Amino acid sequence: MSNEVSVSVRRGVGRITLTRPKALHALNAPMCETILAALERWADDPTVYLVMIDHEADTRGFCAGGDIRMLAESGAGDASEARAFFNVEYRMNAALKTFPKPVLAIMDGVTMGGGVGLSVHGSHRVATERTLFAMPETGIGLFPDVGGGWFLPRLSGELGTWLALTGARLKGSDVAAARVATHYLPSELITNLKKQIDAADFSVGAAEMLNEILRGLTHTVPPGSFEAHGDVIDTCFAKDTAEEIVAALEANGDDWAAEQVATLRTKSPETVKVALRQVREGGKMATFEDNMRMEYRIGWRKVQSHDFLEGVRAVIIDKDNDPKWRPSRLEDVSDEDIAKYFEPLGPDELTFGD
After folding, report:
1. Is-contact 312 323, C-beta < 8 A?
2. Which pLDDT band holds residue 354 (cuts at 50, 70, 90)?
3. What is the pLDDT of residue 207?
4. pLDDT in tens, 284-332
5. Which residues lie closer than 8 Å to 182 by C-beta, 6 or more apart?
6. Does position 2 have pLDDT exceeding 90, yes or no?
7. Residue 133, SS3 per DSSP
8. Residues annotated as part of the active site
9. Cα 134 from Cα 116, distance rounded (Å)
10. Can you tell me the distance from the alpha carbon of 269 to that of 266, in angstroms, rounded to the nearest whole number?
11. What residues have CB less than 8 Å from 170, skipping those under 6 apart?
12. Rounded Cα distance, 279 and 296, in Å
């Protein structure tokens, strides 16, 4: 059990509160183990009607991700600790996705990487003006995991492909406009929301009761700022290869399209191609568990890749923000280079007790 996450039940509500503020509540293995154990208990507990996930007050992050430094240090060795972390984190993601009762995640603040996996699979997801969403993994040579292969291709059009490849950030109401969040309200109303949840009787119709509470507090979501570029996103990011995506953006001639090309040029070419295949294959998968098995195969190998170790060095350790990707160009990354990340793991496959 972890002292960096608080787990309790009050008035029929299972409560998961992240309490690691100095790290913006970034997840580690003990935190994931604690959350997974609680979800497994509550799934069949008739006295728990609803789960609420939030973070300790007065910090600017809901959850900034996972323990990237640990992943890199482990990946530089035998990667056993990194793989153990992915194993429990991905099973936690699956437990959230398949949880048989409403799950409310309050995404008030930075919500990236592992924090997305902790929130986006819940049935009710609240964003505020302080929410900052991103899957920035291609910038450190990792990949948009924690279920990114499942939820990103199921967003409108090619929005998820754009987010996966570029690591673009969505802020405030844009998070709800993209349907990453299901509701939007000012952060000043979060206290009111929690008070109403404390006072509610969820023993009959938990989902209906929660919906009623949220209807009384949430605000109308304006069009997303990204929608002005929807045609470019849906046309260019629908291409079959990363090279074709870049070529389409360059041919478009729009200033915003040119900005996307410039952004893509800074990312790990190998990881851009891994992420593109991930969202394409994940979009066709029949079950969330199948997607997580795919992501575990990728993560098993990616933590020991040159680009991940180099990306962490450049962005997190030395902070020179000048990673030397290998290969350095999309054109030099072969299909065979990418295929190796998706190969079955045999006896090491991720399992869900099935």
Report:
1. no
2. low
3. 96
4. 999 999 999 999 999 999 999 999 999 999 999 999 999 999 999 999 9
5. 123, 124, 125, 126, 176
6. no
7. strand
8. 66, 114, 137, 145
9. 8
10. 8
11. 131, 132, 133, 134, 163, 178, 180, 224, 226
12. 14
